[in-house]
Write a structure and sequence with these properties.
By secondary structure, the chain is an alpha/beta fold. Helix content is 39%, strand content 29%. The chain contains 14 helices and 18 strands. A six-stranded mixed beta sheet has the order 12-8-3-4-5-18, sandwiched between helices. Strand 4 (67-76) and strand 5 form a beta hairpin. Helix 4 (103-116) crosses helix 7, helix 9 crosses helix 10 (285-293) and helix 9 (271-281) packs antiparallel against helix 11. 36% of the residues are buried.
Length: 410
């Protein structure tokens, strides 16, 4: 599991506060007195670590452009059981390009979800994505993790398009592609993850305003990979593509043997279809969304539905073209030439979108490509008596990021 976190751990602060302290003990026995002074670092070294910050399962909170999804899991046996999953819609333009335009609305809607989870001061994991984040695999001289964390801000500057003072930075040490060669050259491979402070801080503040406690801030890409690992495992020596189609953004992640090889966030999504329906048919946002998501047999307006499907096909072609460009770029810069399986998730991953993507991939030098709906709950126990089971039957693909976050402990 990838464990990226842009927040600071509490234990380090506790240890820093005790660093210059000591414990004095006096013992009186039989008229004689013994005095001992024990330095704080020795006390801490003897204390059970679990007593300071025993990790617990976090509630995954995925704040999207048009909806907020929350998932709460509990460990059972060797796996997980679903405690609850909730979804609530946001008004259009509440969040644009990852930036919160209506902060109070987001906080209010999230608070409703946390209350539904019985979550007073719920401990949460959230994620960020888009142009304010960066994930990159880089090579550095071999060093210990402690040395890496001291040096990474200076090493990272050359790889990021932001001022280093304006970003949070985290790293994960990766196994080298060729261990013998890496060792002989004294190099190490790391996954560098960067996020702009103003965006991260906004998301933390909205969770706190809603009454929650933000323990982990992850990247959307790593949350998707963690959800995928739990649901399917990592096939050996196979390039896997995960495509998350949201309302205003698409996330593309390519993994192989559990390692992230490529990520890209595209600033367009299923809203493209809604906007085109609004413009062409002169409809309100709500009516355009209704026709977009309705099944043909659910309406008595075949002429309108035919036009809606034509507009949907045209927009899906535009979205798929961006995905194909990303995959072509990856293939041009690596030795990869084929993708066997592409897993799709998100509210915009409709059947029509999947059909369009599969046809384009097979015509684009991937004749064996399979489009597979990404079910993040595949290896999670769900009580069929829970009311949430009906929601997940229809919308499980929307919860992939939230599940990946709910698998985190902190």
């Amino acid at each position: 599991m990838y464990a990226i976190n842009f927040t600071q751990g509490g234990k380090r602060q506790i240890e820093g506060a005790l660093g210059d302290m000591s414990m004095r003990i006096s013992i009186d026995f039989g008229g004689r007195q013994w005095r001992f002074e024990i330095p704080a670092d020795e006390i801490l070294s003897r204390m059970p670590r679990v007593s300071l910050d025993a990790p617990s399962q976090l509630t995954g909170v995925d704040i999207g452009s048009h909806s907020i999804k929350v998932v709460k899991l509990q460990p059972v046996d060797e796996g997980f059981e679903l405690v609850n999953a909730e979804l609530i819609m946001l008004h259009p333009e509440t969040i644009i390009d990852g930036a919160m335009v209506d902060f109070d609305c987001v906080a209010g809607q999230l608070q409703k979800l946390l209350i539904a989870l019985n979550g007073i001061a719920e401990r949460t994991a959230i994620s960020v994505s888009g142009h304010s984040t960066l994930i990159k695999r880089i090579s550095l001289p071999r060093m210990t993790e402690a040395e890496l964390r001291k040096a990474i801000k200076y090493e990272a500057e050359q790889y990021i398009p932001f001022d280093i003072k304006d970003v949070y930075v985290d790293v994960a040490i990766l196994p080298p592609e060729n261990p013998a060669n890496a060792f002989s050259h004294g190099q190490m491979e790391i996954c560098l993850v960067v996020a702009k402070k103003d965006v991260v801080d906004d998301y933390i503040r909205v969770v706190e305003r809603a009454g929650g406690q933000c323990v982990v801030v992850d990247s959307t890409a790593t949350a998707l990979v963690n959800a995928f690992e739990h649901a399917y495992g990592f096939p050996k020596d196979e390039n896997i593509v995960i495509t998350n189609v949201g309302a205003g953004q698409m996330n593309i992640v390519i993994i192989k043997n559990g390692e992230i090889l490529f990520t890209r966030d595209i600033s367009m999504g299923a809203d493209l279809v809604t906007e085109e329906i609004m413009k062409t048919l002169g409809l309100s946002w709500e009516d355009a969304e209704h026709y977009k998501t309705a099944k043909d047999e659910e309406t008595n307006e075949p002429a309108i539905m035919r036009e809606v499907r034509n507009l949907e096909d045209r927009c899906n072609h535009t979205l798929v073209t961006e995905i194909i460009r990303s995959l072509d770029f990856f293939c041009a810069t690596t030795i990869c030439s084929d993708f066997g399986k592409v897993y799709v998730c998100g509210g915009g991953a409709s059947a029509n979108f999947s059909t369009c993507l599969e046809a384009r991939l097979r015509a684009n030098k991937c004749p064996t490509a399979q489009i597979i709906p990404f079910n993040p709950f595949q290896n999670i126990r769900i009580d069929p008596q829970r009311p949430v089971s009906n929601l997940l039957d229809k919308m499980s693909a929307r919860f992939a990021v939230a599940v990946g976050l709910a698998l985190r402990r902190g």
